[in-house]
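lol so apparently i was supposed to do this last week
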Amino acid sequence: MHWWQTGILYQVYPRSFQDSNGDGVGDLRGIIARLPYLVELGVDAIWLSPVFTSPMTDFGYDITDYTGIDPLFGTLADFDALVARAHALGLKLLLDFVPNHTSDQHPWFAESSASRESDKRDWYIWRDPAPGGGPPNNWLSEFGGSAWAYDPASDQYYYHAFLASQPDLNWRNPLVRAAMHEIMRFWLNRGVDGFRVDVIWHLIKDEAFRDNPPNPDYRAGEPPYRSLLPVYSADRPEVHEVIRGLRAVVDEYADRVLIGEIYLPVEKLIAYYGADLSEAHLPFNFSLIETPWRADMIGCLIDRYEKLLPPGAWPNWVLGNHDRPRLASRLGLEQARVAAMLLLTLPGTPILYYGDEIGMSQVSIPPGQVRDPWEKNLPGLGLGRDGCRTPMQWDGSAGAGFSIAEPWLPLAADSAISNVESARADPASLLNLYRRLIGLRRARPALSRGAYRPLAHTQSLLAFERAADGERLGVALNFSAEASDSLILPEACAGAVLLSTTHERSGEVIAGPLTLRPHEGLIILLDSKAPAP
Ligand code: NOJ
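anyway here it is w/ 1-deoxynojirimycin bound
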């Protein structure tokens, strides 16, 4: 088994984790200082959102130098120190690789846009205006408006799936591929343990640039991008060959991992493991974020995903990230505890987002303090991502232990009472629940690598079994604020409680009908002498 299969991943958003130099923005030295916390939490690896040289129009997802560290975050020497320290503490470190687009200030784009004859013209996606004038086709930018920006000097448009300041690279060009592969080797040679690859399903666009069809399910008020189905601008069949190329580079090194960011339903997502598992080791599975929080729907989702996974493919589950509203605000604090138990008992690699382990909430950002370009482009649609990117709440001090300066985004109003320090001291805190769950997952192979078997799902209650090496664990979760439906456990599902999300009841024997308390999740060590039904 590989470390990325049995281990737990934790996403750090570097701007907001720890500021070490008093400028209000987190940095690499800050992350180094906080590594012991991650060891204490019990995670195995961290993945860092981008720390490369960037004008920060999309907070680092717009890169001008793929092998440089932005001075805001520190230096290459700081980065090397981070890798060394993480490894010394037994933690793996993954970088965010952003190959779909660069910044418009990248020297490659400067050269490409200099003239139609430029050697690097074909490194980006340039097209003539449509026959009657205007953009070459109807493709939309995720961040609002046409995905084509006009360049009057050459009378052509370039394509940008995101901001106009993030022109898409042309991955059909072998020179682009070779340059990107070299960049991956640069970081792999420095010891990074793999990559999370940004918008990997966008890398290749339709060769004929056909118009995207309208989305029949589009509703007024939704982001305009959703008004079309992006069938020609993303998830193209040719993307798989490109991903195999990225994987081949990662495979030149021992025991590294390739993770792909992909927002697709599980039916389409699984194609990104690739034929013979030759693409992403872990195509990010965001379906827990996208599915309504109901036991029956989540139960069906797990069953569907399990059935669809190609032989040998390793599952993964994500509860939150820097692009989606905070878990505790989506589900409420009580259900955030149930979600924690679900995440850490499901089969496959669990991926945590910084701060979710202390129940950080979505912070409402006053209009004058909005930083996210998506919100700025499309105000009022609730798309802003600043609220899930606010500084980590370490302690109850004025700067929450994050910074001595005014932080780049406002702190949550409750940071004086809701922080790592207060959570550590409270045995019933969400943080301590996470620690116990992670401890159990580590101690019980049934949880980290055992087989999964559904036991039941009703509207409010989800129950399943995990089993390995003759040990069987039952997990039962109540998704509602009422006592759950009563579940008649087969005789073989009797056992003793290992952990409850709501009460201290370790050791209590469970047999016969099981009713969970409101918002309760239970892990039960099933009687191994009884035969599995
Ligand atoms: C996906 C990233 O997660 C998001 O934060 C970013 O804005 C877009 N890709 C564009 O790079």
